Amino acid sequence: MALHLTRPLCFFDLETTGVDISKDRIVEMAVLKLQTDGTKEAQTWRINPERPIPAEAAAVHGITDAMVADEPTFKEASKEIYGFIKNADLAGFNSDRFDIPLLVEELLRAEVDFDFKNMKTIDVQTIFHKMEARTLTAALKFYCNTELVDAHAASADTQATHDVLMAQLERYTHLEPNVAFLNDFSTRRKTADFAGFVVYNKAGEECFGFGKHKGKKVVDVLNTEPGYFGWVLNADFPRYTKKILTEIRLRAINTKNS
Q: Which of the ends of the chain has fewer CB neighbours closer than 10 A, N or C?
């Protein structure tokens, strides 16, 4: 079953120095861009993370310090990367919880003026887990009867994610082949900051998704405990989370003064 696209859809995968969204860096990014007419365009970037790649990370994706020593930094490649995915929707495997939040952090470090507010996302892993609960390797075997060669190479994982989604659309007839439906179906919980530290309640209001104020409205906490905002800004939270909280705080101040 073909996807019905109203704008391009970028399947992407990251290889990184680790799994900490706030601290770790991208060492490879692959994108398979599916155009509305069905044509495809692929790009892969090797990135110098400006820090040593831990041995445990290199053991997973096979990328060493020597392999990226002469590659551009993310900041140097950021305009090209963002230009390639701009005005497209995003799809990945576990992308809502890891790849997208980490990519956003890198874009903020690179001072790229990006806008993801109208971007829809499809997390193929969530669809798989709702249907079968397996890994990407098992998903490719289950849906496509294909072995995943070069697992944890970004380009191989990106192609596998694309293939799994196409097979999912063929297998599950109740999955609508459009990005809006798949975005809703594959979203675990709507968040304001990608990383899940700021979530929406049923009324669409921003609430803290962690800690002692979990479930409380952000504006209420900032009013009753203004020092909590300063603590978050100085703590080890993702840059985008801090950006969203700052926007909420400024919005509340402007509303109070208007």
A: C
Helices 154-171, 124-131: axis angle to 10 degrees equals: 50
Exposure pattern of 232-244 as b/e (b: 16+ CB <10 Å)? Answer: beeeebbbbbbeb
> Smallest Cα–Cα separation from 187: which of 235, 117, 130?
130
H/E stretch holding 131:
helix 124-131
Rounded CA Rg of the chain:
19
Q: Look up residue 215 and give its two tokens.
A: 């479930």
pTM of the model: 0.75
List the beta bridge partners of residue 37. none
Length of the chain, in residues: 258
Paired tokens of 40: 């495809």
Q: How far apart are CA 16 and CA 29, in angstroms?
A: 9
150 DSSP 8-state letter: T
70 CB neighbour count, 10 Å cutoff: 8
Q: DSSP letters along 169-200, please?
A: HHH-TTS-SBHHHHHHHH-SS-BSSSSSSEEE
Whole-number pLDDT of residue 256: 77
Q: What is the pLDDT of residues 77-119, one digit of tens each?
A: 999 999 999 999 999 999 999 999 999 999 999 999 998 888 9
Cα angle 147, 150, 156 (rounded to 5 degrees) comes to 85
Distances (CA, A) of 19 to 97, 128, 247, 255: 11, 21, 27, 38
The pLDDT assigned to 133 comes to 55
